Design the sequence.
């Protein structure tokens, strides 16, 4: 299905968020996720099913002031 | 001893981690500043680059406490969601809460700030609100549960120093028991010294260090300024006067004309 990952259209085979992260190359990364603007805690990723057109945000630590 | 939410800190200098020429220079600046708290943010990660992972390894090696921010958030919902994500990633209840209201000055949206503060304090966050020197807003923030306030000196990254001395002094006087950190706008070490001389508990510096020609050296200069300002506050500065007052004794002046 097609979803939006950090603002870019991507095609993923995975059905849930945990599997999608692995497929997208984030398997062991320190990051936080949100789907359609709502935070999805790490413990709930495997149960979070994705749907066509979902907007996925993958955020990681970054420099800040 | 100064504490932020019951965490004792010795260094009164907090350092931002953005806009350094390189990660190595950031690390040098953190070390020479003597800071115990650095600010960090959350941004989109690209799987190939993994820039965030490298940055996080660097910060962890520095052995300092992190204060995640909600920089770039313009709404209560964005700020609250970012805070939730930061708590999970950084493993801290601390959050430097920014809700930006105006693009040119990056002035906080104090209405959104108070609303987001209420939500996050109720959820157990320890909020460091980026606010103005407005007394009523500060009152609302402390009523919502803030035990630290971060008033701006002047707009973020502007380097203009303490823009409203009267307002900042009033804030210090009114909230004598609340740790106050001047955040934003400090350009040179003398601005930081001035904040500490006025009795502010600490300063948060980013651009003034990271954009200096030699960031590590400037971080050291800020460390000295903060120490000097604090010592001066404790020593009790003299009151300014409008007219000259001779410092040498007047009695016993020789008649030599």
Sequence:
């Amino acid at each position: 299905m097609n979803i939006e990952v950090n603002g870019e259209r991507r095609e993923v085979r995975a059905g849930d968020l945990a599997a999608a992260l692995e497929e997208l190359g984030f398997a062991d990364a320190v990051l936080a996720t949100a789907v359609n603007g709502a935070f999805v805690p790490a413990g709930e990723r495997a149960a979070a099913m994705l749907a066509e057109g979902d907007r996925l945000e993958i955020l990681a630590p970054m420099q800040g002031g | 001893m100064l504490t932020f939410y019951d965490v004792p800190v010795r260094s009164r200098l907090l350092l931002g981690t953005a806009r350094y020429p390189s990660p190595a220079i950031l690390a040098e600046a953190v070390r020479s500043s003597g800071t115990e708290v650095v600010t960090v943010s959350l941004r989109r990660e690209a799987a190939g680059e993994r820039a965030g992972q490298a940055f996080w390894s660097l910060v962890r090696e520095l052995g300092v406490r992190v204060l995640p921010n909600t920089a770039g958030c313009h709404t209560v919902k964005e700020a609250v969601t970012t805070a939730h994500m930061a708590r999970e990633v950084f493993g801290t209840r601390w959050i430097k809460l920014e809700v930006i209201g105006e693009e040119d000055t990056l002035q906080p949206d104090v209405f959104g700030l108070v609303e987001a503060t209420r939500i996050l304090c109720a959820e157990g966050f320890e909020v460091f609100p980026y606010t103005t020197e407005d007394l009523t807003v500060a009152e609302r923030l402390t009523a919502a549960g803030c035990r630290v306030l971060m008033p701006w000196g002047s707009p973020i990254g502007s380097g203009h120093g303490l823009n409203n001395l009267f307002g900042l002094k009033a804030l210090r006087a009114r909230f004598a028991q609340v740790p106050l950190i001047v955040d934003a706008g400090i350009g040179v070490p003398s601005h930081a010294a001035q904040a500490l001389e006025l009795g502010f508990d600490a300063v948060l510096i980013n651009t003034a260090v990271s954009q200096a020609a030699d960031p590590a050296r400037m971080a050291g200069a800020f460390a000295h300024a903060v120490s000097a300002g604090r010592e001066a506050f404790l020593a009790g500065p003299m009151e300014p006067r409008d007219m000259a007052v001779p410092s040498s004794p007047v009695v016993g002046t020789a008649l030599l004309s």
In short: Chain B touches chain A through 39 residues (CB under 8 Å). The mean pLDDT of chain B is 96. The first helix of chain B runs from residue 23 to 33. Chain B has nine helices and twelve strands.
